[in-house]
Write a structure and sequence with these properties.
The protein is an alpha/beta fold. The chain has 16 helices and 17 strands. A hairpin with a 2-residue loop joins β13 and β14. The protein binds alpha-D-glucopyranose and calcium ion (CA).
Length: 533
């Protein structure tokens, strides 16, 4: 299989309201992103190996939704798929962002939210207006069952997934908030309308889409009740889905819809889709990564892994064996839905762990996705009750980017940003740009290393069997280069056996040697990358 651009790319997710505010209203916007593109990749600094260049070196940006929206779910409730939210800019500022990004070799991937619209979308307003409206069947309307909801399906955000509409006497399905009615993808007109949305953005030069809750687009045709979750078992979030969404997600027919999206994409050169796939069974992740479906799907079991060598190891091996050598994994540690990983890994050594995590993410066989701010070690921010915005409590990972130590972190000139900022004195881009030992410098060096190493970018993955219990050691091997990565998850040094090798990178700031061989010591929380001679 020929290599595709998205396999060699390092992606960077931007939450547009929180990256940079260009017009001083306290809300991040598209012009703000355009103004900071050089920070992400100036298209020039690629020759620097020491992390001292000005630019991070990412290849593609995923923008969380930019469409008009009443913001019940902060943009994941779209009221017009073919325009830009006025807080963020206009189609003209979007076109400028795409042009400026492309000029630097950065691709732009948009969030596509097909499963549901806002209840303020014109389609839903029509659909709701009467039982005989031509768009009635664009959404999932049902009669109640004995005066109650049509079945027992629950919303991911809590409560029943059904809302009664008194005016028309029927219930509509909403897998998320009641302000987010689900579209009916068994209706060919809906499929055609979504294809038109995809074409609208592809025609504007967009390079692909991150597709929101893609496995949920089709529900059981008979709307059967989901099985009860066993009360006597302690299930993980992912295990619960197998029960809670037995008939409301991950149905076989969803693959037809995805194939349809893919056919539209394939009408354009070099476009891609990465799916937010929550399979009811981890094994079915591979079913979405077929040659005529998604190119990429996030591996959430990796994101949810506890901070343990054995847990990461088994989750990586699981994906390796499930997907096989041809499909391509996708790894991420943080996004706009979960507490940032530097906070999740917690403890007094959070910074050291986040450094190891950066090495892990950027040495995987698979495309890495970085979440804005993780490259400077931005933690989750505590949000006072009167500043909370998100009904699901996810604001803490969506706070404004910390650019400088100035007021409001250089994010905005307004007196107040839309969400409070974290500690900008302690953590900001400007400070880290000038510090070769900073988190930012580590991310830059890692991205550079990955891009200039055949083994790291395209090599095979193999776990090293002979490793201490709390160390994860693996090999990335290409015909021309062999690299070994050793991560010590424990807070004490560990002895490992290594072949004669040169050190490409270590997160241990005091390591001085450049060669290693035989029995060697990994410091507490050290990540080490070796090039085998
Ligand atoms: C996805 C998004 C999340 C959103 C939900 C409903 O999980 O990542 O932010 O709330 O879909 O659209
Ligand atoms: Ca603004």
């Amino acid at each position: 299989m020929a290599r595709e651009w998205w396999q060699d790319a390092v992606f960077y997710q931007i939450y547009p309201r929180s990256f940079a505010d260009a017009n001083g209203d306290g809300i991040g916007d598209l012009n703000g992103i355009t103004a900071h593109l050089d920070y992400l990749n100036d298209g020039l600094t690629d020759g620097l190996t020491d992390g001292s260049g000005a630019s991070l070196g990412i290849d593609a940006i995923w923008l969380s939704p930019i469409n008009p929206s009443p913001l019940s779910d902060w943009g994941y409730d779209v009221s017009d798929y073919c325009d830009v939210h006025p807080d963020l800019g206009t189609l003209a500022s979007f076109d400028r962002l795409v042009a400026e990004a492309h000029r630097r070799g950065i691709r732009i991937v948009l969030d596509l939210v097909p499963n549901h619209t806002s209840d303020q979308h014109a389609w839903f307003r029509e659909s709701r207006s009467s039982r005989t409206n031509p768009k009635r069947d664009w959404y999932l309307w049902r009669r109640g069952r004995d005066g109650a909801a049509p079945n027992n399906w629950s919303s991911t955000f809590g409560g029943s997934a059904w809302e009664f509409d008194a005016a028309s006497g029927e219930w509509y399905l909403h897998s998320f908030l009641r302000e987010q009615p689900d579209l009916n993808f068994r209706n060919p007109e809906v499929v055609e309308a979504m294809h038109a949305v995809i074409r609208f953005w592809l025609d504007r030069g967009v390079d692909g889409f991150r597709v929101d809750v893609i496995a949920q687009m089709i529900k059981d045709a008979q709307f059967r009740d989901n099985p009860e979750v066993p009360k006597d078992r302690n299930l993980t979030q992912l295990e619960r889905l197998a029960y809670e969404q037995r008939y409301s997600s991950d149905q076989p027919e969803v693959h037809d819809v995805i194939r349809g999206f893919r056919r539209v994409l394939d009408g354009y050169p070099a476009r891609m889709m990465v799916g937010e796939v929550w399979p009811r069974d981890p094994r079915s992740l591979a079913d979405y990564l077929r040659a005529d479906e998604l190119q990429q799907a996030f591996n959430f079991r990796f994101l949810f892994s506890p901070w343990q060598a054995s847990a990461f190891r088994s989750r990586i091996e699981e994906v390796e064996s499930l997907l096989g050598p041809d499909a391509w994994p996708t790894y991420t540690l943080s996004n706009h839905d979960f507490p940032r990983h530097i906070t999740r890994y917690g403890a007094s050594n959070a910074e050291a762990r986040a450094r190891m995590a950066a090495v892990l993410l950027l040495t995987m066989r698979g495309t890495p996705f970085i979440y804005y701010g993780e490259e400077i070690g931005m933690p989750n921010v505590g949000i006072p009750a009167d500043r909370k915005r998100d009904p699901m409590g996810r604001d803490g990972c969506r706070t404004p980017m910390q650019w400088t130590a100035k007021r409001n972190g250089g994010f905005t000139t307004a007196s107040e940003a839309w969400l409070p900022l974290g500690d900008c004195n302690a953590i900001n881009v400007e400070k880290q740009l000038g510090d070769a030992s900073s988190m930012l410098a580590l991310y830059r060096r890692m991205i550079h290393l990955r891009k200039h190493s055949r083994a790291l970018s395209e090599g095979t993955y193999r776990t090293e069997a002979h490793a201490p219990d709390d160390c994860l050691i693996f090999h990335r091997e290409a015909p021309t280069q062999r690299v070994m990565v050793a991560l010590n998850f424990s807070d004490a040094p560990r002895r490992i056996e290594v072949p004669r090798a040169s050190i490409l990178l270590s997160t241990d700031r005091i390591r001085r040697d450049d060669m290693l061989g035989g029995v060697s010591e990994l410091s507490a929380n050290e990540a080490l990358i070796l090039k085998i001679s």
